[in-house]
Amino acid sequence: MSAISFDPASGVWLLSTARTSYALWIDPTGAPCHLAWGPPLTLAAAGRLVLPAGEVSSFEGRSPAGEELPVDGGARYGVPSLRVRFADGTRAFEWAHLGHRIGEPAPGTKELALEFRDRHYPLAVALHYRVHDDTDVVERWTVLRNTGRQPMAVLRADSAAWTLPPRDHYRISHVTGQWSAEGLLHREPVPHGETVLTSRRGITSHHANPWLMLDAGDCGEDRGEVWSAALAWSGSWHLTVQRTPDGRTSCTGGAGHDGTELPLGPGQEYATPRFAGLYTDRGFSAASRAWHAYVRSHVLPHPDEMRPVLFNSWEATGFEVDEAGQKALAVRAAQLGVELYVVDDGWFRGRRDDSAGLGDWTPGTERFPRGLVPLVGEVHRLGMRFGLWVEPEMVNPDSDLYRAHPDWVLHFPHRTRTELRNQLVLNFARDDVAEWAYGWLTRLVADNGIDFLKWDMNRAFSEAGWPAREDGQDLLWTRYVHHLYDVIDRLRADHPGLRIETCSGGGGRVDLGILSRTDQAWPSDNTDAADRVSIQHGFSQIYPAQVMAAWVTDVPNQLTGRSVPLRYRFHVAMAGVLAVGGDLARWTPEELSEGAELVAQYKTVRHIVQHGVQHRLRGPVDDGPTAVQYTTADRREVLVLVWQRAPRHGTPRPALRLAGLDPTACYRDVTTGAVHHACVLTGYGIAPELPTGDWSSTSLHLIRVDDMTTEGTGSH
């Protein structure tokens, strides 16, 4: 059970989850300060952490770590989480505590709000904390309100700052990458000074993701303390980690990036996105599982649904999309066992290549002379749902929309409008642009019976200006994202059965903010199964398999030229939400038969993958096998997926020690019938039989056997 308690005598607040505690207090200067984040504490024990202020060197000022929201003001020289410029030019902020509120906004949820104001200027600041009964995640956010009659500028407003206990050798875990190579995991020592992870692109970005894990340098997958945090924001963002000379480490993070500011007019309020934090003493894998459970319970709109097997037309047809061709592909997709048929780019007016048509969202009459309804009807008749690719935030200069509204794009006067991918970014911060997008989207879905949208966003911001407003170039960064969220929220309210996949040139917009209003994510435009093993490994650090779309496409792969067996491609894609993206018209009868068999196999185990508990048994660290395990919550069923790149002769084959099984049970291999003791599987391991040669893979499906003897069954 979660709880929030306060001790008036010590002035300490204690937030308790099932396995952790978080404690804070207000120091004699009025600043909210951190006390503890880690193993469980009593309120009395937390009070003992309040120590008399020690002597501070006149050369140092306040420690850069230790405050709940470090401000720009006084003798502070670390990274400020809050920087404000008041109407008279003053920037320093001074805390004045007003009180606190403890409430229960929903059953099983507790919330603390600490209320402050500046000692002189009309700015109110509220620090919010929320805990739930079913997770150790602590949610934090900050609310700023201008209570005066003059405008002010918010130069930086982070959601929260997290302080860790002193340790000698902190490491940081995070992902980096680029288009088609997203989510590559890095684990490295935290240097002294400041480490900044950021996106200045207006989107989450392919190059980094707004989460991190910190450990004391001795943590593994299944042991050790991990402190982690993830930001729920889909625009520009920053996370700054500080390691101080006195051995402290902290992290502050929020929306925005350097060089921008947020205008806050009289009476206006700004609520930062949520910045969630998690502590565990059971290793990286336990941290990931806790994040997966949190995403299911407190982020996703429909966590209990099974994601359907999907076919996407892009790699089969490119821009050559027409009614007859799509109907023919749909027949083959249905025979393969596909449940959701998605038409990708190329279906709308003027779209022959990527140089024209974006913004003119009506079906091309030469390709669909009767509109989309006949194709949608045929897909539904075949027993599949129908999905469509859209890119509502983009426009080609060669489009009727741009010719009518050239002022609708991000731009500056007297500056080149930089085109990437022959397109410009529509200014979703504008009310009229957001209303236009909502209007055609809701009509498109309603008029055609659309079940699913692949919502793409293929380029970063440039010339991020809004000349019609004096404060536009600063205001647009946050308003853009809020309007994006609002359009999606309104669209889903209009069409409760609609499901949405978030995509941004692959994995450029994957975060807790967009996942709170979509159903799955496209991790990368790179569909090479060999590359996907590493991409999916990084993705799994925070995000569950239930939201990870994974395609089986043709070989040689369009990006890498690599050829790997069809079974290997399927086994890699089975680790998430299975989809097919190849040109089925060119598949041989043998490939179609094998593909149908593997789709059917996935359907028998997808409840384990999508709703189960994940263990990373062996990461993509060497030439040896990579293995991932999924287990149902009741520990009745287990699925292990194993991929081997190119084994070297004489290299020992490692036994995979399974995890999370019922220790007193036995498990039967569904394929061979062999029965295994759980204590052997977890204590000593199993070496799955892999085919010989390069790019071999296998799956192991185990079901618990109750009340039976294993004598003579070949148990090992």
TrEMBL record:
Top-level taxon: Bacteria
Keyword Hydrolase in record: yes
Positions that bind substrate: 179, 344-345, 421, 454-458, 503, 525
Presence of the UniProt keyword Hydrolase in the record: yes
Boundaries of every Glycosyl hydrolase family 36 N-terminal domain copy: 30-261
EC id: 3.2.1.22
Broadest EC class assigned to this enzyme: hydrolase
Catalytic site positions: 456 (nucleophile), 525 (proton donor)
Keywords, ordered alphabetically: Glycosidase, Hydrolase
GO biological process: carbohydrate catabolic process
Pfam hit, one: Glyco_hydro_36C
SUPFAM superfamilies noted in UniProt: (Trans)glycosidases (SSF51445)
Reaction(s) catalysed (UniProt annotation): Hydrolysis of terminal, non-reducing alpha-D-galactose residues in alpha-D-galactosides, including galactose oligosaccharides, galactomannans and galactolipids
InterPro entries cross-referenced by the UniProt entry: Aldolase_TIM, Alpga-gal_N_sf, Alpha-glycosidase_related, GH, Glyco_hydro_27/36_CS, Glyco_hydro_36, Glyco_hydro_36_C, Glyco_hydro_36_N
Domain Glycosyl hydrolase family 36 C-terminal: 626-702
GO function terms (MF aspect): alpha-galactosidase activity
Family: Belongs to the glycosyl hydrolase.
Protein name as it appears in the record: Alpha-galactosidase
Species assigned in the record: Streptomyces broussonetiae
